[in-house]
Amino acid sequence: MADVYVRSGATGANNGSSKADAYTTLEAAAAAKAAGDSFWVASDHVEIKATSLTIACPGTAANPCRILCVDFAGSTPPVSADLRRTAIVSTTGSSTLNINGTFYTYGINTQRNTSAANQQIVLAGNSTDFQVWHGCSHTLNSTGTTAKITLGSSNGSQRVVFIDTTVGFGAVGQQLQVACVAEWYDTVSAITGTIPTSLLLFALAGNLTIRGVDLSAAGSGKNLVDVSTSNAGRLQATDCTTHASVTLTTGSIVGPRG
Predict the structure, then answer these.
(1) CA distances from 257 to 29, 30, 156, 212 (A)
(2) Pseudo-torsion of CA 106, 135, 45, 73, nearest 10°?
(3) Torsion sign, CA atoms 78, 82, 85, 89
(4) Distance between CA atoms of 256 and 258, rounded to whole angstroms?
(5) What pairs with residue 183 in β-bridges?
(6) Short-list 123, 109, 124, CA closest to 166
(7) Which positions of the chain have pLDDT values less than 70?
(8) Residues 6+ apart with CB under 8 A from 175
(9) For the chain, the helix, strand and coil percentages under 3-state DSSP, each to the nearest 5
(10) What pLDDT, on a 0 to 100 scale, did the predictor assign at position 201?
């Protein structure tokens, strides 16, 4: 289980063995290393790719990885006091951002930065992925009307957990799509940017549990769940904050699987 350093501005050997010799991209670091490794990502890390970006973390259920944003001016190896929330991984142009594998991550912010593209941020795209995102954000900085932040993929067997993690949008037609077992906990001001007309969409057998999440940014004229598709979905919300004028659902449940 190695300590692996990542910093976009590093000028050393680009092998992750030290802060000076840090990998310049998390994409390259994840591809080169092994299950159980700890990836220490600098607080000033900004990783931008103009084509589709897939970060394939090597962690497994038996041996997950850690991906932690830290202040490189702190301890070596870093300690909890060095944790930060400012590292950025993003794509531009007509390209999708995929982050796969099993890991716990703190302080990593994903972004889709382009004007009108509909490509997605996809988390946990592999069948056995289990991801915990703590103190992070996922943001669609585009006006693409059907762009989505998607949790899970084709078989719905993954698991994604958000803790104190926000989602952001750039157009009212965008959504958070749940295609796996997902949980969302303890998040203030959970929705940022342009508030979607309908926040949640379920795909496959999506199952979302939320607790202590502030959804109050979705107010009059907004819906929490789009139920008009034929996919099964389950939402359980406890101790959450909602706007007094928000509508719970939009559309008609189309059948017994709805």
Answers:
(1) 42, 38, 15, 28
(2) -70
(3) negative
(4) 5
(5) 161, 209
(6) 109
(7) 257-258
(8) 148, 149, 196, 198, 199, 200, 201, 226
(9) 5, 45, 50
(10) 94
Q: Which of 106, 109, 111 is nearest to 65 (CA)?
A: 106
Q: Give the per-residue pLDDT at 258.
A: 63
Q: Determine the pLDDT at residue 257.
A: 63
Contacts of 110 by beta carbon, 8 Å cutoff, 6+ apart: 88, 89, 90, 97, 99, 121, 123, 136, 137, 138, 139
Mapping DSSP to helix (H, G, I), strand (E, B) and coil, where does residue 136 land? coil
Distances in Å between the Cα of 204 and the Cα atoms of 1, 59, 121, 178, 179 are 36, 25, 18, 8, 6
Tokens 């001001």 belong to which residue?
Answer: 189
Longest dimension (CA), the chain: 59
Burial 133-160 (b: 16+ CB within 10 A, else e): bbbbbbbbbbbbeebbbbbbbeebbbbb
- The answer to whether the CB of 7 falls within 8 A of the CB of 42 is yes
- Report the alpha-carbon distance of residue 206 to residue 225 in Å, rounded: 12
Structure tokens at 199: 């926040």
| Strands laid side by side in the 232-238 sheet | 3-6, 38-42, 65-70, 103-106, 130-134, 159-163, 181-187, 205-213, 232-238
CA distance from start to end of the chain: 44
| Coil, strand or helix at 33 | coil
Q: Which amino acid is it at 239?
A: D
